[in-house]
Amino acid sequence: RQMLRVDLTRKRVTTEPLDHDLERLFLGGPGIAAKMLYEEVEPWIDAFDPLNRLILAPGALTGTIVPCVGRHFVITKSPLTGYFAEANAGGFWGAELKFAGYDLLLVTGRSKNPAYISINDDAVSIEDARSYWGMNAREADRTIRRDLGDNRIRVADIGQAGENLVRIAGIMNDEANRAAARCGVGAVMGSKNLKAIAVRGDGQVPVADAETLKREVRKLNSELARDEFTQNFHKYGTANGIEALVYIGDAPVANWTKNSEWESASELNLPGGYQKISVGIRSCYNCPVACRRVVTVGNEPYRTEEEIEGPEYETCAALGSMCMISDIRVVAKANDLCNIYGLDTISVGSTIAFAMECFEKGLIDKTDTDGIDLRFGNGEALIDLVQGIAFRKGFGDILAEGSRRAAAVVGRRSESYAVHVRGLEMGMHDPRAHQAMSLTYACSPTGGRHMEGETLWVEAPPFPVPEMGINGLDRLSTEGKAEAAFKVQNLWMALSAAGYCLLACATGTARPYTITRNIELYNLATGRNLSLEDFMKAGERIFNVRRAFSFRHGAKRSEDTLPERLLREPIRAGPSKGSVAQLERMLPEYYNIRGWDPITGMPLQSKLEELELEDVAKDLHAP
Questions:
Q1: Which of 45, 124, 219, 621 has a CA that sits 20 to 30 A from residue 287's CA?
Q2: Is there a contact between 1 and 9 (Cβ–Cβ < 8 Å)?
Q3: Is pTM, for the whole model, over 0.90?
Q4: pLDDT tens-digit profile of 184-204?
Q5: Are 431 and 441 spatial neighbours (Cβ–Cβ below 8 Å)?
């Protein structure tokens, strides 16, 4: 097991064995990457400094025969928040890196001219990418594979947004159909003058007990094929959820102001309006669930290329309900533009929705927006601004900085309309409708990411988790939520380090995937003998080292909060009517369970030592 280190400044490529102690403590690549980022990036290093690290890390099981483990993760310091950054993607790129023989790729430095990294098993080189610079991510992917004469190569790359250092840019893979989108990781890649990473591997990922693992995987696949929940997810994907989530107040509408009041959500739902563009289904590496949607929009002005990736739930909400746009063709077109330019759809939709509210309330007008009529529901305005953001043109240049910085430019108390945590726009789940999500967002090391531990799936039936002592919770109550958030966050950190798709394996979507089974498969593949307690403790360790990084780089206890809108303005209609996010009621218990100082918010020295993070404890608590 080894890692690959690429220094773009010195044009130097080296390999080194993975530290066995880090593997023991952090389970797999994403967890190990978090600790390496903590060790190698000092607080004075800016996100765009060549000394910042860009780490791409598949999970421990990625590339094995275990189903639903095709994820890879991007770890760096965020240009959007200044704190710990993580984004993750499905598809096939992560498995290909493992086939080439690498569990982790660490990139540092900055190339003088645009470059790309070519990995073909043990043949690794830094190549000239000037001819690809300026291409969108899909065009660059296809052209690199054509020029290298191998269509089986997998490419992770940036589009024009990353090249232009747009702070909400992501890193794309699989012909720009999959995205490691959040926290501005694509801008960090662009700051290094790194256009792409092309990978081809002919090896296999070794496992400890191949025969037993094959037998258990066959059994699991058989159960998944018969499971009703799994098959419904296969049939409809995440786009099946937006209508129901708008109804209960979870999916945000009109920049978080009209949840449950929007009657057009069915136009974005599958089944529903989404069927107008749906033409097929895709899977990620070795995934029998296959929840990805394939779409084609055939009519102008929103025509797309045939059979491209369709919008997932988060995108349907961010580019759809948040902006009050119900035309699925518009949402699909905007989604595809985000993909080819390399943009985070959540941050893009949230930032444009912020601007739409500013426009409607008279804080900005057409003289500010380059003549764009920026009212809610204007699909043409959405399309125009996606392009403006990617190329930093006109008003799009302001929005390319994300909603927090954009609000600082707009002024006039527009900050109250920018819905973010620590500068990162929030995921598309309202904590007023699921109270434990308040803790997920507010205490996340990365900011407003739902992927730090999406608790809404345990806050109401039918998804109790008896293995963790969670047996169904009232979503509008605060009772039991601190403990639930703590457990779910730790679980998601551990599952991510293992490489599991959290949507399939951690939300009850693929019901045969129990936590016990996740751990059993991990043990069979790695040769370890982890208990549930061991697994959860590793997740807690990963969560805390990420938290420590952010606090070492300037995060404060006062940032463990939510936008005033969610704390003070109740949902006005529907099943969650009258509810606000009751964060302050839950925080003291949460800090106590976490072992964090209630004054500073930092992990206590005793907690870090308990987690075998003595070096971090010494660093954070130095006299």
A1: 124
A2: no
A3: yes
A4: 999 999 999 999 999 999 999
A5: yes
